[in-house]
Amino acid sequence: MRQYSLRMLVVVSLLCFPSIWLPAQKDPGVRGGLPVAGQPVPHPQPLPGLQVNDAKLFLEGLQRAGELESTCDSCATSATGAAFPVTGQGEIDPIFPQFHTNSNGLGARFNAEQCLLCHMQPALGGSAGFIVPNPGEPTPMQPENPMFRLVPKRFGRLNVTPAFEEQFGPVREVRFKFNPDGSRDGGVHQIYTIRGDITDPTIPNCAITQPDFAAEAAKNNLAFRIPLQMFGLGLIDSIQDREILAHHAATAQLRAELGITGHPNRSPNDGTISRFGWKAQNKSVQMFVAEAYNVEQGVDNDLFPQAMEEDPACNGTDKPHPNDSVRIDTDDLRGQGFDNPLHVMADWVVFAFFSRFIDVPHPVDNPSPSAQHGRTLFNDVGCSLCHTPAMQTFANNAEPALADKTANLFSDLLVHHMGAGLADNIIQGNAGPDEFRTTPLWGIGTRIFFLHDGRTQDLLKAIQAHASPASPPDPRTKTPAYPASEANAVIERFQRLSVPDKQAILDFLRSL
Fold first, then answer.
1. Could you tell me if 224 and 234 are in contact, meaning their C-beta atoms sit under 8 angstroms apart?
2. Do 413 and 278 form a contact (C-beta atoms < 8 A)?
């Protein structure tokens, strides 16, 4: 009798308290794991079928993206534009991140001194990840956020790491929501300065300081963004507006049933659809890259010719402006010869070619039965109504490798209201304070951090964060009223799934 009672107790417990006994769904984690000390960062692959000269530009762009910027033309520790030993995938220093400066133009304020510091997970050109903070030393340290100790103190610079750059947290750039007078700001405020740089004798009186991030945080005035993967950007750039709008129109009825709207963010000049960045604020790969050079590295260029920090004491006497522009030297002594076809173009231009021609993320070859089931459920619950599985590129593209190709991006490239839970109170073009572009999901299986601010490493929490109720305005924090998230009905469907079905969707996403 006692044995029977115990069995009944177990059955009743399972029925009444299933979460105690049944394993919950769990994010499988980063596909391929995280880097370890001494492990080389894999090189990216070019798009299959590139024309010969375009393939050369891809490799040259990889070289330029890896260059470590010095602060003046005579400050580089190796020859400007110097080619490092060929590794089989292009000429780039085999040690990454580099510690030999071989390019000139770092701005007085910056977030990073080389493009690939923010784009190295799971390979060069990816999203941000962890790297060793002591490049070139015999015993490498454990990989960590490069903005925690490597970047702020390099070459004796007198920077303090702000609280939001954690040792094993995401690489973050920061925007201020409002100016001191209460008007909207929304722009990037670079984290670090070159003050104290021991390699530049032209700036002995540079006295600029970092913004007071702690004071701005206390006022709830900070908004964060993390870097996105660059894989497949050329295909996204090659999708016509009518393709985007056709997919949007085809799902109109299904979206209406779930309260999903969405709209394009458009270029203010020609009215065409912008598609790059967390709020689709950038029109093209070229614009995206040129802005990153100026905003992230402080390198002024042909598209952004004014320095973001113009203090003469910190710009020195050996750095012309705009610094990174079309090369017009009559010889190639500085690697900038006008008659050298690889050097005539500015770094940002060649990096744009690299970004345009980098291959797409590749999903696992043989997804598990759970992942295959998860793809069906992904469509059934409505995730694919925003995360459009595929679009076709323009058939008459000038680059055959980009022409008439299927881009399995899992994004509609439109912006959507995501509610107060995700709102950053930043307006960019037609994208409002709670609106974000549907993030492409290809390659999500290899990402470490999720959502625009990198708040979580847990894919399940990232999914659940898409739900948010409508909220009233808060005049104290200058927060407007936010509508309910357009994803609420879809997330409600997801939450009603069984544990194995939720797990299947997580397995599917990690397989991408």
1. no
2. no
Q: How many helices (H) and strands (E) does the chain have?
A: 15, 12
CA angle at 76 for the pair 72 and 77, rounded to the nearest 5°: 155
The CA distance from 505 to 218, in Å, is 38
Q: Residue 205: which residues within 8 A CB-CB, separation 6 or more? A: 313
Coil, helix or strand at residue 193: strand
Q: What would the pLDDT profile of 310-327 be if each residue is shown by its tens digit?
A: 999 999 888 888 888 887
Structure token digits, residue 5 = 């009672």
From the list 302, 120, 311, 110, the residue with the least C-alpha distance to 206 is: 311
Copy the structure tokens of residue 137.
């030393």
Contacts of 401 (CB under 8 A, 6+ apart): 47, 48, 49, 50, 51, 54, 234, 357
Q: Is 324 helix (H, G, I), strand (E, B) or coil?
A: strand
Q: How far apart are CA 284 and CA 305, in angstroms?
A: 18
Task: Record the tokens describing residue 428, joined without a space.
Answer: 């960019």
Q: pLDDT tens, 31-41?
A: 988 888 888 88
* Residue ranges covered by each domain of the chain: 240-274+367-511
27, 458 in Cβ contact below 8 A? yes
3-class DSSP state of 76: coil
Confidence (pTM): 0.91
- The two tokens of residue 266 are 């458009």
Which CATH class, in words, describes the domain spanning 240-274+367-511?
mainly alpha
Whole-angstrom distance, CA of residue 317 vs CA of residue 306: 16
CB count within 10 Å of CB 308 equals 18
